[in-house]
Amino acid sequence: MNAAAWAQKKPSKSLKERAVVLVLFLLALVSVLTTAGIIFTLFGETLQFFRQVPLLEFLFAPEWTPLFAEPRYGIGALLAGTFLFTAIGLVVAIPLGLLTAAYLSEYAPFEQSVRVKGIMELLEGIPTVVFGYFALLFVTPIFQNLIPGLNLFNPLSAGLVLGFAILPYISNVASDAMMAVPRSLREAAYALGATKFEVVTRVVFPAAISGIVAAIILATSRAIGETMIAAIAAGQRPMLTLDPRETIATMTSYIVQAATGDQPAGSLASRALFSVGTTLFVLTLTFNILAQRIVERYRERYE
Amino acid sequence: MMLQEVAIGHETVRWEPVPAEEAVIQVQNLNLYYGKHQALYNVSVNFPRNKITAIIGPSGCGKSTLLRSLNRMNDLIPGVRIEGKVIYEGVDIYDPRVDPVEVRRHIGMVFQKPNPFPKSIYENVVFSLRLQGQKEGLDEVVEQALRRAALWEEVKDKLHEIALRLSGGQQQRLCIARAIAAEPPLLLLDEPTSALDPIATERIESLLLELKQHYSLIIVTHNMQQAARIADRTIFMHLGVLIEEGPTNVLFTNPKDKRTEAYITGRFG
Amino acid sequence: MQKGLSLDSSQSPQNLRRDRINRLFARAVVIPTVIALALIGVLLLDTLYDTVSVQVVEVTETSGKSFALSQALTADQVIRLELLAQGKSPEEVAALMSDPDEMRVFRLRNRVELMWATQEGPLRWVVSSIDDERIANYSLFEGLRRWNELKEGLQENQQLRLNPWLDYSFLTRDPSRNPISAGLRVALFGTLWVLGLTLAMSIPIGVGTAIYLEEYAPKNRLTRFIEVNLRNLAGVPSIVFGLLGLAVFVRGMEFGPTIISAALTMALLIMPTITIAAREALRSVPDSIRFAAYALGATKWQTVTMVVLPSSIPGIATGVILAATRAIGEAAPLLIVGAAAYVAFVPRGIFSEYTVLPVQIYLWISANLSEFANTAAAGIIVLLVTLAGLYALAFWIRRRYRVEW
């Protein structure tokens, strides 16, 4: 039987559909190309860097001073600064974030949780340059009155404010994890005569622990990559120290300092900049993937 | 009418078919598989022109699957494989040279739940014309389609309001108007009243009885009373097999197969 | 919880303690929210407070006079009074004011502002030159407390004034090395240019990617790879995008520190955000709607463009606006791709140099704090108000146009 004219396929139409799919596919590839671009530029420049600077120097030199007459390239100085900044931020954000998560998942009535989420969104929406300004001009002067020997630029006030900037990440992911804990577990504990506090701390928290860990890892990754608060309030002077009163530089604030200093392409100083970028990228990517893995695993468990 | 005997698996079933020249669409030896699972077994049936044919049967019997085979909606489900022929206007719509999109333009369909687009009533009705780039005479089409769908009087003053504000029954009549706007000779209805209240259902049923002057209708329903009320012919299906087919009053009063009898007397379903 | 069940057991010291901890904890969980809210409030108030200061200025180029509102209502009237006060004859003044070039030079070198208070009284117009020297800048509190003392200590050709930094003229002034006459005009235009170009590039890419993944992509490893890649890209620190932009756009393609480099960098940065939001919006369109379109004989592309995409536009628009707020607030990547240079002029095209709001604020903060703290604070308020407006818009769209299926 022949296909009558009314129903016959028109080659032009299927060609158009195929062209559409191709164009959309190419658009979707842009994100892959972006990742490839990041990896190639960062690793390319970094490879060049290590042709001139031995890996041991990079790992173990005590200073990071690429612009000095006798430059040193010890990433440790930047890692120490990043660590201080991040650790102080986490010290603030973890307890506040977990309490907020407990409130959202266990205590808050619906309207109240909408409001709390709104406040967290507000925190998330404030540009970090504003947080930096606040840390430097409001928090630091107060701390300087309380803590003798506190530098104008210091990881203490920067980290404190950072804690609030990353608080939403912890509270969001952790409350999701806690809400995923099955109701039956809670009811079992109540049936044994537990108070709500005991249910939350001894049943819900342990059951949601992988999600909570993922939340903290995610927030750590954000903190490591956070730039403007560090650049404005923590300082841009690399220093191998764990004293939170000292001026330091994080990897990000060093990148800001170096990149705004206009170094010619191909110079060793510029390559050093990219080697810091690579370290930052690898570190944050590792943390992100780790957090995703953990989240996927607990999703599988409860869904 | 002649009697026919066809072997289906180990069963032998008899029915009186609609003659080919009176059929709007003919199904011949249709087998349908979802992956490895077979959902339709060697179904053959002719649907009459300008009549209402009801397909009934317990849930999971393949009645919706059969209906969706008639306008190639099953093609949209990944992993579906179809053997056999469905002949419509002289064309096997499963011929590889046939464009399924064209088939659907010629055969209208109404779904279980009303699914108007989140557009105005007007835009819903003219959607199929817009697909073909028609720009003129839209107003006339809207009025005629809505009149035929018995919705015109209720919505003529708010044609440009969003369709989602209509009641469920109105939405379903709008979906019927949308399906008949392009004048398809055949209209498929997949349990069109199952989501509606009795009053809305009654209105749709009387609408379908009027529509049969202009269109051939095939309706899937889980509601036997509905089939008895409106259908000229009825098909009973069970586990993917067409068990019995015939004039509605015959099938309901004098079923030949014991499974049909069990179903219409409510002993399973 | 179990009070009243057994009075005996609930009175035991151990149970009393459990009960107390339980109640304390129920209160403690609210504390972080309160602290966060307080922090936002303090941050806003502190910044607003910093937008006002009391300053003593040594007048070298201008008359040092202030003019009451009753004397002048428009800037032109103020300029006339000022020129007369500088000792020019009425004829000279008329000639100056009718010459557009002269007036342009005058406006570049001076600013006309309504001060909240001066030594001569409240709400008075002041014309100050960029060459006028700021001798002292006091915070609002200290300045008001010592107002009379400062007023008495004023020397010849010194002026005391309560300066609201955030006024209309702040938005329209060009940048300057002198905080007295520094303004946001160039940064505002830079932000508009970069944002417009960023969205023009990232919306098609982001929405296209979302359509591909939701409507077309086969379920295979490549699709899965693209999805995982998108999620990881969304977590890459923004400054790394800056390094990518520096290597590829600024240096590799030799665009230099221009708007096009900034917009390309920003587009890549916010593209994952847009894609994720658009996918969610597309996913919220029920399949029954797609089937309805197919059953009417729509091709896949017609179904997408005529039904699915229009139905998800509110969701996509909300996502795009939220991505735009990110693009507006981000300073780090643009610092890397060269927004940090001092730019005195409004951009004229995509190959112009530029600066944007948050970068301008960063530059003011890092330039010389005591000088620029007030302009930085005023800039922050402008930035926050802009963002608040966009959030409100997103919220409104979400409420107004949400389709209830």
TrEMBL record, chain A:
Q: Where in the cell is it found?
A: Cell membrane; Membrane
Topology relative to the lipid bilayer, per the entry, is: Multi-pass membrane protein
Segments forming domain ABC transmembrane type-1: 79-291
Pfam families found in the cross-reference section: BPD_transp_1
Q: Give a short account of what the protein does.
A: Part of the binding-protein-dependent transport system for phosphate; probably responsible for the translocation of the substrate across the membrane.
User: One MF term from GO for this chain?
Assistant: phosphate transmembrane transporter activity
Q: Which family does it belong to?
A: Belongs to the binding-protein-dependent transport system permease family. CysTW subfamily.
Q: What protein am I looking at?
A: Phosphate transport system permease protein
Q: Which PROSITE patterns match?
A: ABC_TM1
NCBIfam families xrefs: phosphate_pstC
Automatic annotation (TrEMBL), chain B:
Q: Which Pfam families match?
A: ABC_tran
Matches recorded under InterPro entries: AAA+_ATPase (IPR003593), ABC_transporter-like_ATP-bd (IPR003439), ABC_transporter-like_CS (IPR017871), P-loop_NTPase (IPR027417), PstB-like (IPR005670)
Does the UniProt entry include the keyword Ion transport?
no
Record bears the keyword Oxidoreductase? no
Q: Which PROSITE patterns match?
A: ABC_TRANSPORTER_1, ABC_TRANSPORTER_2
Keywords, sorted A to Z: ATP-binding, Hydrolase, Nucleotide-binding, Transport
Annotated GO molecular function terms are:
ATP binding; ATP hydrolysis activity; phosphate transmembrane transporter activity
In this chain the ABC transporter domain maps to: 25-264
Pull one GO CC term from this UniProt entry: membrane
**CDD domains in the cross-refs:** ABC_PstB_phosphate_transporter (cd03260)
Q: What is its EC number?
A: 3.6.3.27
Instruction: Share an example GO biological-process annotation for this protein.
Output: phosphate ion transmembrane transport
Write down the PANTHER family for this protein, in alphabetical order: ABC TRANSPORTER I FAMILY MEMBER 17
- What NCBIfam families would the database entry show? 3a0107s01c2 (TIGR00972)
Protein name, as recorded: Phosphate import ATP-binding protein PstB 3
> Gene encoding it?
pstB3
From TrEMBL, chain C:
| GO molecular function terms attached to this record | phosphate transmembrane transporter activity
Compartment(s) where it occurs, according to its Swiss-Prot or TrEMBL record: Cell membrane
Database matches in CDD domains: TM_PBP2
Q: Which SUPFAM superfamilies match?
A: MetI-like
Q: Does the keyword Transport apply?
A: yes
What's this protein's name?
Answer: Phosphate transport system permease protein PstA
Transmembrane keyword on record: yes
Species of origin: Meiothermus luteus
Transmembrane stretches in the record are: 24-45, 186-213, 233-253, 259-282, 303-325, 331-351, 372-397
Membrane topology recorded in Swiss-Prot or TrEMBL: Multi-pass membrane protein
Return the similarity comment: Belongs to the binding-protein-dependent transport system permease family. CysTW subfamily.
One Gene Ontology term of the biological-process aspect is: phosphate ion transmembrane transport
What is the predominant subcellular site recorded for this chain?
membrane
Q: Which UniProt keywords apply?
A: Cell membrane, Membrane, Transmembrane, Transmembrane helix, Transport
Residues folding into a coiled coil are none
Q: Which InterPro entries match?
A: MetI-like, MetI-like_sf, Phosphate_PstA
Q: Where is the ABC transmembrane type-1 domain?
A: 188-393
Name any one Pfam family assigned in the record.
BPD_transp_1
One GO CC annotation, please? Answer: plasma membrane
